[in-house]
Amino acid sequence: MKILIPLKQVPDSTVRVSVAPDGKSIKAEGITWSISPYDEYAIEMALERKDADPSTVVALVTVGPARSRDALRQALAMGCDEAQVVIVDEPVPPLAVARALAKVIEQTKPDLVLCGKQASDDDQGFIGPALAEVLGWPHVATITKAVPGDGSVELWREVEGGHEVWTARLPALATVHKSEKEPRYPSLPGIMKAKKKEILERPFAALGIDTSGPMLEVLSMEPPPARGGGKILKDGDLNQVAEQLAILLRDEAKVL
């Protein structure tokens, strides 16, 4: 079985970002970049299958700037087998990204495509469903488990009070909410092997993708307001403190 994971490189969740002078983007200088967290869960789900069946091939693809190679190298160090990057330096419409990924998938012919349910930078959740539509493949959203069978795959979704289990004919696509295990860390041997693996590169323009279509427009960005300091109520007896707390919750916090 061949599993392909489209991934996205995003600012690391531990980094404090700041707004660029144009007021519509973030400052890229000094930012640590990493794999989008839900994409990491998709990688882990694929690698769990590879652990169970070593003949499984786990491939990666990303559409983005040249620095996206670092995210692919990280995923290769986790245990993935092959990777390629479609290099594009300027933003393109999300539908064009889905079409570019579809071109790669038509060439690599995976049995199963696993996408993170949404990227952590824009939270759109658009690429997975759009990619399935472009390919004409069955699609199940926000899965937590995948169990391949004979020409099909069982896809598990968490719902209130239990699970839904969907069966899809292969090839199929699913977006991953979380896998049953937390994403593994790259091992030292994995890092050394990843350094030697070739990452196929191609320019976005070489795919002949139509880049027309709606584009998300950011009107403005601003940091969240600074949080005020806390208050310690210690004057008076228990009843007086409770009365002060109720007044503050009503008049300042506006929660009562």
Overview of this structure, please?
With 256 residues, the chain is an alpha/beta fold. The protein folds into 2 domains: 2-207, Rossmann fold (3-Layer(aba) Sandwich); 225-256. Helices cover 29% and strands 26% of the residues. The protein is built from 6 helices and 11 strands. Helix 2 crosses helix 5 (188-196) and helix 3 (94-108) crosses helix 4.
Question: What are the salient characteristics of this protein?
Answer:
Rossmann fold, globular, nine-stranded mixed sheet, two-stranded antiparallel ribbon, alpha/beta, 256 residues
Count all strands and give the number: 11
Rg from Cα: 22 Å
How much helix, percentage-wise, in residues?
A: 25-40%
Strand proportion, as a percent range, falls in: 25-35%
Poorly predicted sequence stretches spanning 5 or more consecutive residues: none
Spell out the blueprint of helices and strands:
Elements: E1 2-6, E2 9-11, E3 33-35, H1 37-52, E4 57-64, H2 69-78, E5 82-87, H3 94-108, E6 112-116, H4 127-135, E7 139-148, E8 152-159, E9 162-169, E10 172-176, H5 188-196, E11 199-203, H6 238-251
Parallel strand pairs: 1-4, 1-6, 4-5, 5-11, 6-10, 7-10
Antiparallel strand pairs: 2-3, 7-8, 8-9
